[in-house]
Amino acid sequence: MIEVRSLVKRYGRHLAVDHLDFTVEDGQIFGFLGPNGAGKSTTMNIMTGYIGATEGDVLVDGHSIYQEPELVKRSIGYLPEQPPLYLDMTVEEYLGFAAGLKRVPRGERREQVDHVMEMTGIFGVRGRLIRNLSKGYKQRVGLSQALLGFPKVLILDEPTVGLDPKQILEIRTLVRELAKSHTVILSSHILSEIQEMCDHLLIIHHGKKVAAGAPAQLEWELSGVPALELTVRAPETAARAALTGLTGLRGVEGVPCAEEGCCSLRLEQENGCDLRGAVSAACAGAGVPLLELRRDVMTLEDIFLRLTAEDPPAPEREDGPVEEEEKPEEEEAGEP
Fold first, then answer.
1. What range defines the domain where residue 257 resides?
2. Is 10 in contact with 16 (CB distance < 8 Å)?
3. What's the average model confidence in pLDDT over 34-40?
4. What is the structure's pLDDT at 236?
5. What is the average pLDDT value for the chain, to the nearest integer?
6. How confident is the model over 173-201, as a mean pLDDT?
7. How do residues 83-134 score in pLDDT, each as one tens digit?
8. What is the DSSP letter of 59?
9. What's the CATH code of the domain at 280?
10. Which CATH number belongs to the domain containing residue 12 in this structure?
11. In whole angstroms, what is the distance from residue 155 CA to residue 56 CA?
12. Are residues 6 and 35 both part of a single domain?
């Protein structure tokens, strides 16, 4: 289990991370979500021991990143947004070098390097210079580096940024496979990716936690009293008549429907009401075939936009580095 306790990071007068607390359970795929400049990469860099915090602590299985840094770092594999690759090395040379840096015992390096290359699907390009690989394959090499030493925790910062749709699907599939034996912390700007892959997510803004929970739970809890949308095979007048007199129904509005001979309605409910059962029974009683009935809950995109609507303060460059600046994309070669 990973615990982040009251984490603070200041660059001069710029507060990049503001008393952040969260917990990651073993075996989770934990999504880390926020706009540019929210503090995601800074938090990840602190968790890996790459930079220090101004205040607070990070514990991995009860071990502090500050009191037992070597032990904690051995438990974490890190893939930053820009993988730390040596472009003039071959894939095999680079991973052997990285294994040495990670103090993998000499007698185990060959086996580990071969194993992670098989896991990430790059064994076939092991003799290629890294500079000649596409960005998708470079991401796989960076992920292989993170897997060396077989850490319990993988921290992946924007692992699919800049990839084409096919490469994105391949990396997603790989991450799901890795999650079977690792705890994964994943940062991404792609909301559908977070929703599809993650068991739990944390949304931060201005360095603060603004929401946390399972994606479906957040959609449900933050939707308030969601409206109902239904489609019936009947004229709108018949559908409205069937629903007349339902207790807790605040309003009925027609919405566009593309199906011939059907109509769709949006029903506003009173606070505390859930009229799905009553609507279904009323339609059946009136002989109005009910084709679809659903709650109009907020999507993850709606939630994200609402919680991060306020623009962040302007960065104060005169006092120190600005976190999460835009980086130019590298030119890349085609797939091998």
1. 225-295
2. yes
3. 87
4. 95
5. 86
6. 85
7. 889 999 999 999 999 999 999 999 999 999 999 999 888 999 999 999 999 8
8. E
9. 3.30.70.260
10. 3.40.50.300
11. 19
12. yes
By CB neighbour count within 10 A (0-12 exposed, 13-18 middle, 19+ buried), where does 321 fall? exposed
pLDDT of residue 308: 82
Residue burial 20-55, b: 16+ Cβ < 10 Å; e: rest: bebebeeebbbbbbbbebbbbbbbbbbbbbeeebee
Question: What is residue 225's predicted lDDT score, i.e. its pLDDT?
Answer: 67
Question: Shortest CA distance to 159 belongs to which of 148, 325, 145, 91?
Answer: 145
pLDDT in tens, 220-268: 677 666 789 999 999 999 999 999 989 999 999 999 998 999 999 999 9
Q: Are 200 and 30 in contact (CB under 8 A)?
A: yes
pLDDT of residue 224: 65
Within 8 A by CB and 6+ apart from 73, the residues are: 48, 49, 65
214 and 290 fall within a common domain:
no
Strand 55-60, strand 153-157: pairing: unpaired
- Residues composing the chain: 336
Q: For tokens 């201005």, what's the residue?
A: 206
Same domain, 279 and 175: no
- Same domain for 97 and 244? no
> Measured at the alpha carbon of residue 241, what is the angle toward residues 236 and 243, in degrees to the nearest 5?
100
- Over residues 151-179, the mean pLDDT reads 85
Taking residue 15's Cβ as centre, other Cβ atoms within 10 Å add up to: 18
- H-type alpha helices, the chain: 40-47, 69-74, 91-101, 106-120, 135-147, 165-178, 191-197, 215-221, 236-243, 276-285, 300-307
Residue of 227, 224, 202, 228 whose CA lies nearest to 213? 202
- Among all chains, which residue has been given the structure tokens 């730390």? 84
Q: What is the average pLDDT across 158-168? A: 81
What average pLDDT does the segment 23-52 reach? 90
- In this structure, the number of other CB atoms found within 10 A of the CB of residue 86 comes to 13
